[in-house]
Write a structure and sequence with these properties.
The protein is α/β, with parallel strands linked by helices. It contains 9 helices and 11 strands.
């Protein structure tokens, strides 16, 4: 994960927050926006910050955008620019394109043109707030679809001091631990012999019905 490169196109609240968080994690981040003021704000945070029009195919090629592992189309208010940028990225065969949708209809359009992942920041934030009100063990909640989500949960006491194999989490609870946060360290794709500690935060992927049960442990 440390070698992955991300490009964030659009530096509104969502895009800028992504740039800050990915940069905080020590990842290479290219921040792009047509507004010079937003680009200037990003220069002290991102690896690179460029003033550019993401709807211009030649500009994207000049930026070497197809070499990035993940490109996030975080353009919010201008739906046309959002969709056009997404189409260009897919045509350029960017490995993974993530696009922000304003609403369900916008999201359906993005899915039709082949976006790898459609995100709804406002809706997902509401879900995270509601989830945090229901259970204190859930620190973050990313809704991937109507069936699947990713949760960040405080390690249940049941798992502390055991390896993932000993806890039998996948078979017993029908979920996958895709990462473990341990202070500033992030253990991605932990092996079955990885021991879970008391202050660890588990990043868990699975069906919502099983995640709900896990968060109640």
């Amino acid at each position: 994960m440390k070698n992955m490169q991300f490009a964030i196109l659009g530096l509104g609240r969502f895009g800028f927050s992504l740039v800050k968080e990915l940069s905080r994690m020590g990842l290479d981040v290219l921040a792009v926006d047509s507004d010079p003021n937003k680009v200037n704000l990003a220069r002290d945070i991102a690896t690179y910050a460029v003033e550019a029009d993401s709807t211009d195919e030649q500009v994207l090629k000049t930026l070497g955008i197809r070499n990035f592992d993940v490109v996030v189309v975080a353009i919010g208010e201008n739906v046309q620019s959002n969709i056009l940028t997404t189409i260009l990225l897919k045509d350029m065969e960017v490995p993974m394109v993530v696009s922000k949708a304003q609403n369900h209809l916008h999201g359906r359009v993005l899915e039709k043109i082949g976006t790898d992942l459609v995100v709804y920041p406002e809706r997902d934030m509401a879900i995270r707030v509601a989830q945090s009100l229901l259970t204190k063990s859930v620190l973050d909640h990313i809704n991937l679809s109507s069936e699947y989500s990713i949760l960040e949960i405080i390690t249940p006491a049941l798992f502390v001091g055991k390896t993932l194999q000993e806890s039998n989490i996948r078979e017993k609870h029908n979920v996958n631990i895709i990462a473990i946060k341990r202070g500033e360290e992030i253990i991605v794709n932990p092996t079955s012999n990885q021991t879970v500690l008391a202050n660890d935060i588990l990043v868990v992927l699975g069906k919502n019905i099983y995640l709900d049960k896990l968060s109640d442990l």
